[in-house]
Amino acid sequence: MTSKRHVLKIALGLVAAASAAATFAADTGPIKIGLILPMTGQSASTGRQIDAAVKLWMAQHGDKIGGRKVEVILKDDGAVPDATKRLAQELVVNDKVTVLAGFGITPSALATAPIATQSKTPMVVMAAATSSITDASPFIVRTSFTLPQVTVGIADWAAKNKIRRAVTLVADYGPGFDAEKFFDSQFRLDGGKILDKLRTPLKSPDFAPVLQKVLDDKPDALFVFLPSGQGASFMKQFAERGLDKSGIRLIATGDVTDDDQLNDMGDVALGIVTSHHYSAAHPSAANKKFVAAFEAANKGMRPNFMAVGGYDGMRVIYKALEATKGAGGQAMLDAMKGQIFESPRGPVLIDAQTRDIVQDVYIRKVERVPSMGNQLYNVEFDVIKAVKDPGKTK
Ligand code: DHB
User: Fold this and answer.
1) Is residue 130 in contact with ligand 1, taking CB distance under 6 Å?
2) Ligand 1 centroid from CA 276, angstroms
3) CA-to-CA dists, residue 49 to 2, 46, 259, 392, angstroms
């Protein structure tokens, strides 16, 4: 009996020693950020932009928090949701990351949400923008935007600017459904009429058939949402099919006139009016500093809205880790909620209730800007202040 108790005592002692060692290692070892991005495939520009922004943040703010090293583990999911989920699981279980971040497209974010919930790992969505994503796990915080948030503004602008009849064209998945729904309801509320609702596949879309349909419908305007990376090929087909000379106005969310591709689109893009939360031409001191540093570190590459989502995501992560001394879990999540700061895009808030970002949405027009190298930019001419995601049902 005595010897049995003795053995048990030793065993418990070993367990306690092991867990003390683990705690010690956790408190002094690196704080790991698992960054999952599409570095290859159709959404690779999103990965390239966010990766560059994360590196810029760390070059500017250091790789130490409370004396501990911060380590970013970058994984390429190719925007394949099954891969995103598997990589997230490996990062949590094997690498013991404190926080997951990235998520280039909605299906990747949704596939990973259960892992964040089960492991109580905060998950910072830096790109994906379907409204419902933050409802998929209480551990999700978003620093990008939502499609309802940026769509209502352009619908209002259209109705106030002699556009009475519109056709919508969206990518056939989550963010496209949000854009279509919120454009439709706002535009009709404002007295407009929707003639047609067209959709193109997320993967390798061919725009020729839908553009022919738009020519046949003869609306006053075509409203478009396509994910980052598809704008240039869309504009090429838009011009090839003669829509630029048809008198049909092109309006869109800023995903279409993406700063990553805009300057290469040429004159066909001139005059497109969009609503969005970020333009590289946003005229604040903070943004000018951000754009100059980003371009200097990346051979002149212009940051787009994805880069800003990544940069601000790192801000939210760093401030939370500083506040909790790298604790992770629920404490880190709580320290992310309610953060208010000036982003390169303007003032932002991480809404403590919804864990989604509240931000200004700008109405912009594509122009050549003589003072900025005569390049094409989305020039902001109106602003809707502090827009909450209109897609939230709770
Ligand atoms: C999503 C992806 C994009 O590239 C974009 O511009 C908007 C939304 C998404 O999948 O959520």
Assistant:
1) yes
2) 13
3) 65, 5, 11, 28
Please determine, for residue 314, whether its predicted confidence score (pLDDT) is greater than 90: yes
Mean pLDDT of the chain: 94
Query: The pTM is what?
Result: 0.93
Among 125, 47, 53, CA closest to 302: 53
**Is residue 243 exposed (0-12), middle (13-18) or buried (19+ Cβ within 10 Å)?**
buried
Position 392 confidence tier, pLDDT thresholds 50, 70, 90: confident
Give the containing element (helix H, strand E) for 112: helix 106-119
Q: What does DSSP assign to residue 301?
A: P
Q: Which residues on adjacent β-strands are paired with residue 65?
A: 68
Catalogue the E-assigned strands of the chain.
31-37, 64-65, 68-76, 99-102, 123-125, 140-142, 165-171, 193-200, 221-225, 249-253, 273-276, 340-343, 346-350, 357-369, 375-387
Query: Which of 46, 105, 110 is the pocket-test mutation for ligand 1 (most atoms within 8 Å of CB)?
Result: 105
Q: Does the beta carbon of 144 sit less than 6 angstroms from any atom of ligand 1?
A: no
